[in-house]
Amino acid sequence: MLVSYKWLQEYIDLAGISAEELAEKITKSGIEVEGVEKLNEGLKGVVVGHVLECEKHPNAEKLNKTLVDIGSGEPVQIICGAPNVGKGQKVAVATVGAVLPGNFKIKKAKLRGEESNGMICSLQELGIEGKLAPKEYAEGIYNFSSDTEVGQDALEVLNRDDVILELGLTPNRADAMSMLGVAYEVGAILGKEVKIPNPQPKTSSEQASDYIKVTVEAKEDNPLYVAKIIKNVKIGPSPVWLQTRLMSAGIRPHNNVVDVTNFILLEYGQPLHAFDYDKLGSKEILVRRAGNGEVIETLDDVKRTLTPDHLVITNGTEPVALAGVMGGANSEVSSDTTTILLESAYFTGGAIRKASKDHGLRSEASSRYEKGVDPERVRPAAERAVELMVELAGGEVLGGIVEADALDVKPAVVSTTLGKINKILGTTLEMNEVKDIFARLKFATSVDNETITVTVPTRRGDITIEEDLIEEVGRLYGYDNLPTTLPEGPSTPGHLSNYQKKRRLVRHFMEGAGLFQAVTYSLTSAEKATQYALEKYEPVELAMPMSEDRSHLRLSIVPELLEVLKYNNARQNDSVAVYETGAVFLKNSDGELPEEREHLAAAITGLWESHPWQGEKKAVDFFVLKGIVEGLFAKLGLESQLGFQKAELDGLHPGRTAEIFLNGDVIGFIGQVHPTMQKTLDLKETYVFELSLKSLLEAETAPLQYTAIPRFPSITRDIALVVDKKKAAGDLEKIISEAGGSLLKEVSVFDLYEGEKMEHDKKSLAFSLKYFDPEKTLTDEDIAKVHNKVLAKLEEKAGAVLRG
Amino acid sequence: MQDRLKELQIEALEKVAAAADLKELNDIRVSYLGKKGPITEVLKGMGKLSAEERPKMGALANEVRDAISGQMEGKQKELEEAAVQKQLAAEEMDVTLPGRPVKMGSHHPLTSIIEEIEDLFIGMGYTVEEGPEVEKDYYNFEALNLPKGHPARDMQDSFYITEETLLRTHTSPVQARTMEKHQGKGPVKIICPGKVYRRDNDDATHSHQFMQIEGLVVDENIRMSDLKGTLEVFAKKLFGEDREIRLRPSFFPFTEPSVEMDISCKICGGSGCSVCKGTGWIEILGAGMVHPNVLEMAGYDSKKYTGFAFGMGPERIAMLKYGVDDIRHFYTNDVRFLKQFSVEE
Ligand SMILES: [Zn+2]
């Protein structure tokens, strides 16, 4: 809602309060003022001029040479390019020395050899948006009415010496969608009286009821419809004061009758519609739901097909308006209209919202009906409108008002207590302070001991319960004045859950390992939703996605991380290491929410180590990422429960992929992205892992327990084994560990050789075995006993022999 | 014999003085002072001397030895020092060459903001609650005083999966679920971070997926002044002690009264600038007293219990705090963006 500071002063005394101060007060107590715009900011030196002469420029086809009286001294010659300039017009002249928007300074100039002492202005050149300028002046200069005094400040005549407050209205404050509503609000904030118009139009002896009959079939959608008739109007442009009022509120002026309906809409918040009575084709108004497939051509010349969801105003048979949204082209007021049927109606929000949405039409009228208008303003708004129309367009108002009234609206009566108010706000207000606040709001009250009963005017439909009253008290008392306290009562220990603590640990670990945390979208394409899924599920699908790319909920994080890599690679970020923690969504049976399982995923590509001047460079590989997984399990005390097993999974390199096991259950995978996929995504060698973070963080771990630092030395035996190439190191390690029994404390691989010195299907794997007894120093014989058993088992179970 | 010793002393001392390195010095030591050296050789002839001369000669021999070895010690120190110097000179390097980089990732900036807020409220006795991102219509809307048909729950604004389930549009359903879990008893003191989803086209200021973090306190005597005090502590800790806060009226279906909180603009100190659009204030969050309908639906007696709630967008806070100008940066994960947040503040 755009509120003119000058206009507002017609309803309330703002002496001594600047627009900026007012904006600040309104924001703090009621409605956020999102902008304060001075209309004449950077503008000066524009006067009303009288075009005395106008002829074609001798040297330029499209220019005119004019002589303009600007009210001081000799008339001046001005070259004007506007097509509509003409002798006798009263126009806005930017004189030499004037400044126009954009710091455009007007200087004496010569145009094609002819002197020009200023500029005749269009409204756009004075800072008014082209779409708001009256149509006849949209492409050229603006004309004042012929009785406008020459030489006076044109910016004042155009009401540019105004300030516009832009109110950001929350949905509950529909009452402030009118100047009167804003005046009530400002009156409450400032504690001032509000002047309300009191229309008393003179009427002729003819009765409106002889001209029109009003019937409402759809009483629920339209509980009140009133009609007035005005005869013998003369359609013409509105006076400048009315045009500028509309323009400052963002509405384009049309003609005196339509402009009055829009003026009343802004003043009362009550939408009105003027029909050309003679074009109605009947003496009847019938309001009903539209038939299925019924068609109306609206004022914007669009034919619209209707359904019974939509409410129409008809002449008994044909629709003449889409109720509350837009009038019909067939009954539009035009320059030859003489008799007006004025509609002022109370439509409920539902049907209007539906029509406005279905037809993509949001008008000033529909947005007010959707949020709710004040039923008690329907009649006064109509009276005020006809009074103004007669004043501006002549004619006579027929006697009486024709209406269909099924309205049953009473002011809400809401009670609360002083104790409750103070309890909720934390204040120590007295009853007379509370009473005073409601008096400022112009709400009637009655007090009975601690209880105050408030009669809420119908203009404030948002107030229905006592908390609403408390809000009124709070905001007008001023939130700045509230005490500052902290909750009292029993103290509660704040903490993270174990799960949350461990999740933070995981993040720190991953980052310490060199990966950046990414956050990607949960919504993805149908195809990507199932890629790299740990378990086969049908993905959860949106009912109405915005795009195919974001239509399904992900079953894994890896596809989006690969997109992150791709995005970075395309921007010369060649080495990327990222991880993400987040939910994947596993579909449950219909009617149930999907299971959301938190996963951890990582993706790395490019160089892992890069320290070029010392010749250190290492590309990512499987074992870089595997080391991170191992480290993570170790950090969480789950090292002994971790296992890897070679696997073949879609989208991953068949020879470089493993499943990750926790306590014998598969909880994830690790591997190289399949070369085909790498190529599709334009990625170099890339490794990923994804696992169920939930499983990891909920796994049971043994409590941390100190073990004594050994007092006896350990003894190491290294062995180099020759085995089949396909034999997994992990399997050999397992054999060694089992055979080594309790004396064997550690096994580790320290060499792998597959070169030409070996038979082509063999490889050499070297292990380091550390033996240790906490009770004594081991002798060679002690060790030989176990060690030989280890060697024997290796040969027996894996055909591994010592390398000769 | 005496002369011979003196000669040897002069000869040895000359050689010691001329020794170029430790090895040479050691050779001199061995050749003059060793068991097969000339001094020993000379002393072997002592037997021919008289009993009176013998001790004198012995003393002289010792003198010569001491003189040589004394000189040698000095020389040795000198040569050792020179050797060290030489080694140091040879080992000199360019200390301005870059060090070996330590691999170091970092939190996503949104995680940093969320954890900072979590920790701040944990310090005030809150726990962190989470809930599902796919929600029942009931928890997302109805339990929050947004009955079916309410304009604020337009199908166009939400990602529905079925008629009864949707991607949550805010983290408030976690509040509803937590209150329900408490079965009408207080106190409830929680902070709820998480992802939320709305049908917005992604652009510089909109994202179909974004983060929210909300707080809720419900107990028997929770007042709006408590909300004000809590938010003031929060704002000063997160944005700086010198920042002022103000509450101004607003509207949310699940709170009544409802407010928005602004903080004074850091850039201009309140005099007005482009960041605060000339107002001197920057909007940070929405808040209010829990609507009685919400309390009642969650099983609380709204005559006895009151509560406050607040909610904010980590993206907005990160954008304000770090000057990020496009919300999409948070979701494209450009490493040049992410790396800028490795710094711990
Ligand atoms: Zn500022």
Automatic annotation (TrEMBL), chain A:
One of its GO terms (molecular function) is ATP binding. Its EC number is 6.1.1.20. It catalyses: tRNA(Phe) + L-phenylalanine + ATP = L-phenylalanyl-tRNA(Phe) + AMP + diphosphate + H(+). One of its GO terms (biological process) is phenylalanyl-tRNA aminoacylation. It is an enzyme of class 6 (ligase). InterPro entries: aa-tRNA-synth_II/BPL/LPL, B3/B4_tRNA-bd, DNA-bd_dom_put_sf, Fdx_antiC-bd, Fdx_antiC-bd_sf, NA-bd_OB-fold, Phe-tRNA-ligase_IIc_bsu, Phe-tRNA-ligase_IIc_bsu_bact. One of its GO terms (cellular component) is phenylalanine-tRNA ligase complex. Mg(2+) binds at D462, D468, E471, E472. Residues 409-484 form the B5 domain. It comes from the Bacteria. Its cofactor is Mg(2+). Its main location: cytoplasm. Binds 2 magnesium ions per tetramer. Keywords: Aminoacyl-tRNA synthetase, ATP-binding, Cytoplasm, Ligase, Magnesium, Metal-binding, Nucleotide-binding, Protein biosynthesis, RNA-binding, tRNA-binding. Residues 40-155 form the TRNA-binding domain. Residues 710-803 form the FDX-ACB domain. It is found in: Cytoplasm. Belongs to the phenylalanyl-tRNA synthetase beta subunit family. Type 1 subfamily. Tetramer of two alpha and two beta subunits. This is Phenylalanine--tRNA ligase beta subunit. It comes from Mesobacillus subterraneus.
UniProtKB/TrEMBL annotation, chain B:
This is Phenylalanine--tRNA ligase alpha subunit. Gene3D superfamilies: Bira Bifunctional Protein, Domain 2. It is found in: Cytoplasm. It holds the Pfam family tRNA-synt_2d. GO terms for cellular component: cytoplasm. Mg(2+) binds at E256. Its EC number is 6.1.1.20. It catalyses: tRNA(Phe) + L-phenylalanine + ATP = L-phenylalanyl-tRNA(Phe) + AMP + diphosphate + H(+). One of its GO terms (molecular function) is tRNA binding. Keywords: Aminoacyl-tRNA synthetase, ATP-binding, Cytoplasm, Ligase, Magnesium, Metal-binding, Nucleotide-binding, Protein biosynthesis. Binds 2 magnesium ions per tetramer. Belongs to the class-II aminoacyl-tRNA synthetase family. Phe-tRNA synthetase alpha subunit type 1 subfamily. Its cofactor is Mg(2+). Residues 111-340 form the Aminoacyl-transfer RNA synthetases class-II family profile domain. InterPro entries: aa-tRNA-synth_II, aa-tRNA-synth_II/BPL/LPL, Phe-tRNA-synth_IIc_asu, Phe-tRNA_ligase_II_N, Phe_tRNA_ligase_alpha1_bac, Phenylalanyl-tRNA_Synthase, tRNA-bd_arm. Tetramer of two alpha and two beta subunits. GO terms for biological process: phenylalanyl-tRNA aminoacylation.
